[in-house]
Amino acid sequence: MDRLAEIQRALDSFRMDEARALAQQELEENPSATAYYLASQAALTQGERLGYLRQALEIDPDYQAAADELAAAAPLTTVKKKPVVQPVEPAVAETPALQLASIGRRWLAIIIDGVIVGIATMLVLIVGGALAPLDAALSSADAAAVSDAFAQFQSRTLASNLLVSAVYNVALMVWFNGQTLGKMMLRLRVVKKRGGRITLLDALLRNVFGYTVSQIFLLGYLWALFDGERQAWHDKMAGTVVVEEARADSD
User: Residue 99: what are its φ and ψ, rounded to 5°?
Assistant: First the structure.
């Protein structure tokens, strides 16, 4: 029980490396439904998380928290649920106050992600042959043709960038529990306002529709400078905050 409490405290402070190590030790020595459930909260990928949740239900089919999360994360997977009963294992404690990430670190993470998305966009354009019409127009030395080709290239670049950005941000945030590569480097994580993992719907709302609104003259991003919870407009729309992931040696 003491180790289960240690795992929960590590999760509450977003010390995910420590939580994973403790959970692995607990599963090796004393596997239980609660141990598997806590391991799912620290899982690196969505696949690992679903596997731990299924293991928790195999040990205790009445573990309602695991059944609910599995049903929400994988709606196409049939989860046999019995009548709701009080779990035998201790309930997971609520997440305490979170350490909000600084605006500077958030913007640096956005810049890193922007560079990655930009490189990926150029690769998509090159593979898709978007440069060929522009190259042909430049070779023709026809000013009108060059202007038209450049306008088409700009249009394709914008569309490709929006698509790559949406796929990159949504996919990584769902699979890596609220993190993109930029946020991983800066040890930041996007969570629900009161703690907990973001869902696919949250990721879509925040990183597709929300980003589009926030980018209007960058007002949505600047809003975070004056917001008490440092929420940009896209955070407001999805009900999320960006927090710092504590290191295990910070205690």
Answer: -90, 105
